[in-house]
Amino acid sequence: MACTYELQNGQVKTFLVGSAFVGEVPLYHMILAALLTGALAITVANPTDLVKVRLQAEGQLPPGVPKRYSGAMDAYSTIVRQEGLGALWTGLGPNIARNAIINAAELASYDQVKMTILKIPGFTDSAFTHLLAGLGAGLFAVFIGSPVDVVKSRMMGDSTYKSTFDCFLKTSFNEGFLAFYKGFIPNFGRVGAWNVIMFLTLEQAKKFFSG
């Protein structure tokens, strides 16, 4: 598990376990580090994510409907001009929850999935095993984080929602619970591919530096 924990910010690691810590990092520390770094990262990146969601929504408008933004830079300036600077952090709450949950789910599940696979006869600690473990971690992360991801995207694309809870209730009542898993397959494709590349790279780096 230590190799996956190395993804986390060095300052978070020092804060949680101390600079002199030696040995296997406890699972709850890995999860906490993932939650903290995920929350910090998305707080900085929220304006970029907001603009991405708004521009994606523009592309789904029916023919003849005028677009609000001509591009990314125009979207930034229009949002600030019409809605205020703070609007760039619309949906920050669910976005933090989404990023923190998915980060934690990925890091906490990868090694568990890999160890389960290695118990199956014929499987060894190979690149194929790491690939399956990365896909498994991605599947688990998307399954856990998809409802929050949907709420986050809807709040960013539609400013009429009063709060995260309001968005959750309206989506649930109007469309049913399965609405929180819309786009599950493409989302899994993106997160799963990211996990495979990330964990394969980490495993290879671990082997390289360990001799």
Automatic annotation (TrEMBL):
It comes from the Eukaryota. Its main location: membrane. InterPro entries: MCP_dom_sf (IPR023395), MCP_transmembrane (IPR018108), Mito_Metabolite_Transporter (IPR050391). Keywords: Membrane, Repeat, Transmembrane, Transmembrane helix, Transport. It holds the Pfam family Mito_carr. The chain crosses the membrane at residues 27-45. PROSITE patterns: SOLCAR. The keyword Lyase does not apply. Solcar repeats lie at residues 25-116, 125-208. It is a multi-pass membrane protein. It is found in: Membrane. Gene3D superfamilies: Mitochondrial carrier domain. The keyword Ion transport does not apply. Belongs to the mitochondrial carrier (TC 2.A.29) family. This is Mitochondrial uncoupling protein 2, variant 2. The lineage of its organism: Eukaryota, Viridiplantae, Streptophyta, Embryophyta, Tracheophyta.
